[in-house]
């Protein structure tokens, strides 16, 4: 939150960027800051700018507003857009709909979503046939940008190498995910959703042919690739693939190795696949790279690189105020605090705190359209306040309760 407060416009870096990159919209701001602030009008205004800048072929530019010298970026990457960045035109309205239960937001940007999806499909296909036409490997993408194993130490190969190592798999994963989201959005708006579901299945099949070796492993052995494959439902044997991800983290000294596009899904993916303890281990990790490593090294805002100050003491040129990795705040609210959406607008919500012993007491308050939700937990009790005209579903340590409006206090069993 301190990172966001340092800006008076939608930007994500004070050093080299000072521009509103599209990954800004989803990776942290929409999912994280929009919980702490009412950012609906702010984000809608920004999305209007994104649509204004959208090219006639449907391409969404890497950042919006785009200054006059934007097209010089062709000299850098050879491209004006990237998977995961442009997909914010679908992902941000979807997140706003879930929070505010406002279908008009989906209607407002539906045409722009379709145009981006059509551009993505055409770009992926190129001159290819068979399953290859669903693999988006025809242009530049940032991929799982700046994952730490390529950014730290004497052998570090730099940010562009993180793109080269992951871009084709990551772009294809986001092509699949956006197709799936468009199917859900189309269904909500009463439009034909089958074409998007069908396309998702084709991309999923192509993904498995191209990027899986038949042994429950990906052909690209990076944590972020495994995270996205699991988070976007692109693998059938989730147990096997998640086990491999867990082993990769353990073999990396219980440290993460995820970049801009995969880190928002990392801890949730572990929790959803039976690795809650490993997720907590990563969250409380103090070695580099980790969130607490930054704090231990004096950070008051989120860094652009996991090792902006490297373990050797070397200070890099990366920004020290760049909130992409601040997306963990969203996970804290939903998994540790336990507040999870069931119906748009929090008309119905879950209270599902992780069973953990490291944080003994916390209190969470959130203002919804219906009033304030409150969750307070200690080792002795769980308190839940349910606003008027809403319903809560408590699920904690074997206790399941359905709650209507009111204040509830549950005594918890605990051991010293």
UniProtKB/TrEMBL annotation:
It catalyses: Hydrolysis of terminal non-reducing alpha-L-rhamnose residues in alpha-L-rhamnosides. Its EC number is 3.2.1.40. Gene3D superfamilies: 1.50.10.10, Maltose phosphorylase, domain 3 (2.60.420.10). One of its GO terms (biological process) is carbohydrate metabolic process. Keywords: Hydrolase. Residues 338-404 form the Alpha-L-rhamnosidase C-terminal domain. GO terms for molecular function: alpha-L-rhamnosidase activity. InterPro entries: 6-hairpin_glycosidase_sf (IPR008928), 6hp_glycosidase-like_sf (IPR012341), Alpha_rhamnosid (IPR016007), Bac_rhamnosid6H (IPR035396), Bac_rhamnosid_C (IPR035398). This is alpha-L-rhamnosidase.
